[in-house]
Design goal:
The chain is α/β, with parallel strands linked by helices and 496 residues long. The protein is built from 19 helices and 12 strands. The strands form 3 sheets. It has a 7-stranded mixed β-sheet with strand order 3-2-1-4-5-6-7, with helices on both faces. A 3-stranded antiparallel β-sheet has the order 8-11-12. Helix 8 packs across helix 11, helix 9 packs antiparallel against helix 10 and helix 14 crosses helix 17. The longest helix has 34 residues. The N and C termini lie far apart (71 Å).
C-alpha cells in the first residue's frame, strides 16, 4: 500500500478543502476525524477516486504515513489541539512533525513548541488565511517553528499556497515557535480594522448621502477597479454581497441582516498583545469594540429612545463627497496597517521572532482575506528600508497622507453631523495626529497629575523649542518630583 505524504486531522470545511488542494497538487493524503461518520462521508463524497486515504483510528493514520511523518491538525484552538498532541505522542518517532494549522493563540504555540522539542518532535504553528475558497484554491500561509521542521514541508506548502500576480507563492518561513501564529493573529486584527472602516464608509453613504444599498455596492465595485488604490478582496466582496437580494422580499439582503457582528477571538488577542507590548493600535481596537457594541442589540434599542443624535444629511456635489470617502478610507487603511506592522515589530523584538515585514506583506498579496493592491507598496517600503520606524514614514505613504489628511477629517465631520459613529476612521486620524506630534500637551498635563497625586515623577524637556529629554552627562534621562504639599513646592531629582 502506498504511504501518504502527509496526514490531516479534522475534515471540517477548512480541513477537507486543504486535503483536496494537496491531493490536486500531486500529494497523497491520509485523513482522520474524531467523528468517523464525517471521515466516511468525505471519503465517499468529494474524496472518492482520489489519492486520499481515510482512517478511523489515530494509529492507522500514523501507520499510513511515510517517514518522517507529517501530521496537520485542523481542529479548534485550545484544548482540542493539546488533546490530539497527547494522543499522537506515543505513536510518533523522534523527528516526526506536527503542524497546527488552526487559529491558535501564539503563546500556546510557544509552549507547545518547547514541550514537543523536549520529546524530539518537530512542531510548526501555521496561520492559514483565505477561508474555504482559499484553502481549496490556494491560501496565504504563515508558518513558524524550527527551520528544519519547515524544510520538511516547504515544497508542499509552496505548492498549495496562493500565487500572487507575479507568480510568487504566498508563504514564507516567519520565524521560530509562535511567530507564524502571531503573524496570523495580527493579520486578523488588520482584517477587523479593514472590515470596520469599509462598513463605516458604507454607513456614511447611506445615512449622510441618502444612498441605497445597491448604489453603495456600485461605488464599492468602482473602488475595486483594476488600478484603484483601494482594490482588495474585502472591497470586492462588500460590493458583491451588498448587491444580493433577499429571496422572499426582493429587498437588498444587507437591509434585512441583523446588525450583530460576532467574533472568534483573534481580534481580542491582537488588542491584548498590543497592551502587553505597549503598542497603540486604536483602529484595530475600535473595530473590536464596535463588534462588542453590535452585540448589545437590546441595550442599543433602549438607549436609542433616550438619547437624541443629530441626523443631518450632507448637501453638495455627490461625486466630490464620494471621492472624499475614497481617499479618507485609503488614509485610514494605511494607518491601520501601520498599527499592525508596529505590533509585529514590537513582538519581533520581544519574542526574538526576527520577522521580515517586507516578506510578510508580500505573503499577504494573494489568498488571504486582507489581500489588497497596496500590499505591493508596503512590501516595497520595507524592502527599501527594513528599519522604517513606522509604515507611515515610507515616502509614498507619508506624502499621500500629508497632502490628503484633511479629507479624512472632513469625512469624519460629515459622519458626526449625521449622528454616525465612525470609531475606526476617527481613531485612524487620531493615531496619525499623535504619531506626528513632537509634543503631546495632554501627556504633559497627565504627567503632572500623576506626580501630584501619586509622586510618580516626571521627565523634563529642554524647552518649548528643544523637545529632547533632559539627561545627565552620560546620557541617562533625569527624573524629577515636585513636593506639591510643601511650602514653595520644592523640586528634586529622583535617583534610582
Amino acid at each position: 500500500m502506498q504511504k501518504a505524504d502527509i496526514g490531516l486531522i479534522g475534515v471540517e470545511v477548512m480541513g477537507r478543502s486543504l486535503v483536496l488542494n494537496m491531493e490536486g497538487k500531486g500529494y497523497t493524503v491520509a485523513v482522520f476525524n474524531r467523528t468517523g461518520a464525517k471521515t466516511k462521508a468525505f471519503a465517499e463524497g468529494p474524496a472518492k477516486g482520489k489519492k486520499i486515504i481515510p482512517t478511523y483510528e489515530l494509529k492507522d493514520l500514523v501507520a499510513a504515513l511515510d517517514k518522517p511523518r507529517k501530521i496537520l491538525l485542523m481542529v479548534k484552538e485550545g484544548a482540542p489541539v493539546d488533546s490530539f498532541i497527547e494522543q499522537l505522542l506515543p505513536l510518533l518517532d523522534k523527528g516526526d512533525l506536527i503542524i497546527d494549522g488552526g487559529n491558535s493563540f501564539f503563546k500556546d504555540t510557544i509552549r507547545r513548541n518547547a514541550y514537543l522539542t523536549e520529546k524530539g518532535i518537530l512542531f510548526i504553528g501555521t496561520g492559514v488565511s483565505g477561508g474555504e475558497e482559499g484553502a481549496l484554491k490556494g491560501p496565504a500561509m504563515m508558518p513558524g517553528g524550527q527551520r528544519e521542521a519547515y524544510a520538511l514541508v516547504e515544497k508542499l506548502f509552496t505548492a498549495i499556497a496562493a500565487k500572487a500576480y507575479d507568480g510568487a507563492p504566498c508563504v514564507s518561513y516567519m520565524g521560530p515557535d509562535g511567530a507564524g501564529h502571531f503573524v496570523k493573529m495580527v493579520h486578523n486584527g488588520i482584517e477587523y480594522g479593514d472590515m470596520e472602516m469599509i462598513g463605516e464608509c458604507a454607513w456614511v453613504f447611506r445615512n449622510a448621502l441618502g444612498m441605497n444599498s445597491g448604489e453603495i455596492a456600485d461605488i464599492m465595485a468602482q473602488w475595486n477597479g483594476k488600478d484603484d488604490i483601494l482594490r482588495s478582496y474585502l472591497v470586492e466582496i462588500t460590493s458583491d454581497s451588498m448587491k444580493e437580494k433577499h429571496k422572499e422580499t426582493g429587498e437588498h439582503l444587507v437591509d434585512r441582516v441583523a446588525d450583530i457582528t460576532r467574533m472568534k477571538g483573534t481580534g481580542t488577542w491582537t488588542v491584548q498583545s498590543a497592551l502587553e507590548l505597549l503598542v497603540p493600535i486604536p483602529s484595530i481596537a475600535a473595530a473590536v469594540f464596535s463588534r462588542e457594541m453590535s452585540q448589545d442589540k437590546d441595550l442599543r434599542l433602549t438607549m436609542s429612545k433616550i438619547l437624541t443624535l443629530p441626523a443631518q444629511k450632507t448637501t453638495g456635489d455627490k461625486k466630490e463627497l464620494l471621492d472624499l470617502g475614497h481617499d479618507a478610507l485609503y488614509i485610514a487603511k494605511i494607518a491601520s496597517y501601520a498599527q499592525g506592522m508596529a505590533l509585529l515589530q514590537a513582538a519581533s523584538r520581544q519574542y526574538k521572532f526576527n520577522l521580515n515585514l517586507g516578506e510578510i506583506a508580500k505573503s499577504w498579496r494573494a489568498g488571504c482575506i486582507i489581500r489588497a493592491q497596496f500590499l505591493d507598496e508596503i512590501s516595497k517600503a520595507y524592502q527599501e528600508n527594513p528599519n522604517l520606524p513606522n509604515l507611515l514614514a515610507a515616502p509614498k505613504f507619508a506624502g499621500f497622507v500629508s497632502q490628503n489628511l484633511m479629507k479624512l477629517v472632513r469625512f469624519i465631520g460629515i459622519a458626526h453631523s449625521a449622528g454616525l459613529p465612525v470609531l475606526a476612521l476617527t481613531s485612524a486620524y487620531d493615531y496619525i495626529a499623535q504619531l506626528a506630534s513632537p509634543a503631546m500637551f495632554s501627556a504633559q498635563v497627565a504627567a503632572l497629575q500623576r506626580d501630584y497625586f501619586g509622586a510618580h515623577g516626571y521627565f523634563k524637556i529642554g524647552g518649548p523649542k528643544d523637545p529632547k529629554l533632559v539627561a545627565d552627562g552620560e546620557g541617562k534621562v533625569r527624573e524629577y518630583h515636585t513636593e506639591w504639599l510643601f511650602d514653595g513646592r520644592p523640586e528634586k531629582e529622583i535617583t534610582k
